[in-house]
Structure formats: C-alpha cells, structure tokens
Amino acid sequence: MHVSNRFLSFMLAFGLGAPAFAQFDTYTSEFDFFNALGGADVVTEGFEGFDLDEVIPAGTQVGDVIFESFPTEFGGLAGDNYFVFDFRGLHVERDGIPGEGDLDFYFPGDEVGLSFTNDVFAVAFYFNVGPSNDVSDYMYVETPVGTAFTGGPVQDLSGMFFAGIISKTPFSTATIGSTFDAPTGWNGDNLIYAPVAGDFVTHNILLSGCQEVPPVFTTGVGEASVSLNTATNQVTVFGSYDNMSSDVSMAHIHGLAAKGQNAGVIVTLVTTGGTSGEFNGVGTLTDEQAQGFIDGLTYVNVHTFNNPGGEIRGQIENPCPGDFNADGAKNILDFVAFQGAWVDQECAGDANHDLTYNILDFVAFQGIFQAPCD
C-alpha cells in the first residue's frame, strides 16, 4: 500500500521508537496479588524467635532473607510498646505481643535492603500507618526489575497498606522504604515472597470490540490479568471495563478458539454490572483447556444488554498492540497497516474508540505503538 508523504511526516513528527518490554506487574491489594500468583507457594517472614529487646544487626538472616541494612539500631520495651532510640530502627516485636514481628521505620526516607538466598519472582510488604493519613504512593518495594508503590488513602481503621510486585524475570534483592515526601512516619508488617517456580502463566490482556467475531463498533474498552497455575489448572481473572454501550450483563472465559473464531464458555466470571466496573473469577480447567490456555486458544468476553453475544473481547495471550500487522516487530509497517484499516474504516482503525475516523485515531495509535509490549 502506498504511504503518503503527509502520513510519513505525521509519524516522524511523533518520533517512532522501540519500547522496552514490560517485565513485571504491581499490586496495591493483597487479594489481587495472591490471586495473580495463581496458587504459587509463598513464604512469610517475621522476626519471631528473637528476644523482645534484642538488637538485630545488619546482615542478619531470617529464613531465606538477609537484612542488609537498617537506618539505625533500636531500643527496648516501654510499657506495652517498643520505644526506638532516636525514633528510628528495627523492632523485633511490637505491642508486646510475642510472635508479631515488625519492621519499624519512623522517619520518611528510611529504608532497609534485603537479599534473598534464592531467586524470587514475587515480593510484597504490609505497611502500617495511622488511619488518618493519606500516604498514597509514598511507600514502596523496590526491586531490580521495577518498583511497587502503595496506592490510595488509608481505607480502614487498621491503617494497612500493601505493595507487591510479580516479575517475569527472577531477582534476588529488594529495598523496602518510604520517600522523603511521605507525610507521616510508618512501620511495616510481614514480608512475603515467592521462590522461583515454573508453575504459573500470567497474561495481561486488552479487551476491545474489534476482537469480537464479528467486530462490534463500541467505545467500550477493558483490561484483565489472567493467571493459570499449571500444577493445578486453576485459572484466576481480575479485570475492568469502561464506557460500555449499556450495562454489563455477564463475563466469561471462552475456549478453545483462536483469534477470529468463537467458542463456548469454560469459566463464568462475576461482574459489578454498569457501563464501567470490574469482573473477576476463579475456575479449574481440564488438561485440554489448560493446554489451550497456554497455546493462546482462550479469550475473555464481556457481554452487555445491547450486545448479548459480547461487546468487548480479549484473547488470552501476551499482547503487543502496537505490532498492528502482527509480524513480531514494531516499525513503519505497523503504521502502514493501521492506515489501511483507517482508510477502509475497519473497526481496528478507530484507535481512540470514538466511533469516528479522524486524525485523533493516529494520535491514539502513536501512543499504543510507543507503549511497551507485555
């Protein structure tokens, strides 16, 4: 297909580049975190077994974790709680309750380094602050593959935050801390991590009307994280949708079918309804269905009252939406293919899902093109 000079100028003006591939997902909910692991074994480490006012020096190993550094040393028991000299340091126990091991950092900017005796693919941490504080995005778990921040204001009286990261690339070190912009002191509860194990497959997918068969022209969009435990065949789904044409009636995993084909329901999901909301669910696949999941032959389908056969769909595989011509690379040919769909007013040419075809579609596709593949 011929590419006009105006079209080439448009692309060059936005500066095409090859993005890095995403290697991790972050979580601010323990529910999402554990379910995204698909049943993989996890380990929880506290400080049980140490004397109540024992100083734990840097380099101490607890289970499979070596605590490499602390802000400073700490003091002893004061009443029913621990008092930290200079208001900094590491508690062995808190609130005088044996077996409740805590890391306590009282100043913004404090952090502790960790190293794992064996590689891990997931790590998470509970942060504890006062229930009146909004500490969104101030506390974090940092790893060589990426950083997970807590999110949102404190929602309950316990004042607990959660930050977790699941990586496709194993790692052996992590740092737990808070930024200097944090508005409050904080402490933290148990550390959770998952040793490397090849017993789960996770895909983060995008849902659109263009993937329906036949295509559905809709402003609705969605995304989902779908994980399969290959040891148990248990599949878990967490997703969301937005701007649907009518209220969502149901959602499912379907299979076995490749792109461009339809298949029956194999897992029923729970939805919150409405034109924007969430869906989730857990199911167990047969061996044949599990293999089909791995081979990319399953998909998530979200149904609405206006489109009972499905309004948005996403094939369960690692997508690279900017690779428009599906040749395994992102380059000028993807814009050529996109221009063809746009000129022919095919569903996929409406990149911004506004049911019209104009220059804004090219702007939207440029953003898709530059986004990292999963």
Entry keywords:
Immunoglobulin-like, mainly beta, single chain, 374 residues, 13% helix, Jelly Rolls, eight-stranded antiparallel β-sheet
Helix content: 10-25%
N-end to C-end Cα span: 29 Å
Structural class: mainly beta
Number of domains: 3
**Whole-number mean pLDDT:** 78
Taken from the alpha-carbon principal axes, the silhouette is globular
Give the ordered list of helices and strands: HEHEEEEEEEEEEEEEEEEEHEEHH
- Unreliably modeled segments: 1-22, 72-103
Give a structural overview.
There is one protein chain. The chain is mainly beta and 374 residues long. The chain has 3 domains: 5-21 and 323-370, no CATH class; 42-195, Sandwich (Jelly Rolls); 200-315, Immunoglobulin-like. It has helices spanning 5-14, 30-36, 287-294, 332-343, 359-370; strands at residues 24-27, 43-45, 60-62, 65-69, 77-78, 81-82, 103-105, 111-128, 139-143, 146-149, 160-178, 186-195, 200-208, 221-229, 234-242, 248-255, 265-271, 277-284, 298-304, 312-315. Strand 9 (139-143) and strand 10 form a beta hairpin. Helix 4 packs antiparallel against helix 5. Residues 1-22 and 72-103 have low confidence and may be disordered.
Q: How is this fold's topology laid out?
A:
Blueprint: H1 5-14, E1 24-27, H2 30-36, E2 43-45, E3 60-62, E4 65-69, E5 77-78, E6 81-82, E7 103-105, E8 111-128, E9 139-143, E10 146-149, E11 160-178, E12 186-195, E13 200-208, E14 221-229, E15 234-242, E16 248-255, E17 265-271, E18 277-284, H3 287-294, E19 298-304, E20 312-315, H4 332-343, H5 359-370
Antiparallel strand pairs: 1-11, 2-12, 3-4, 4-8, 5-6, 7-12, 8-11, 8-12, 9-10, 9-11, 13-14, 14-15, 15-18, 16-17, 16-19, 17-18, 19-20
Helix pairs in contact: 4-5
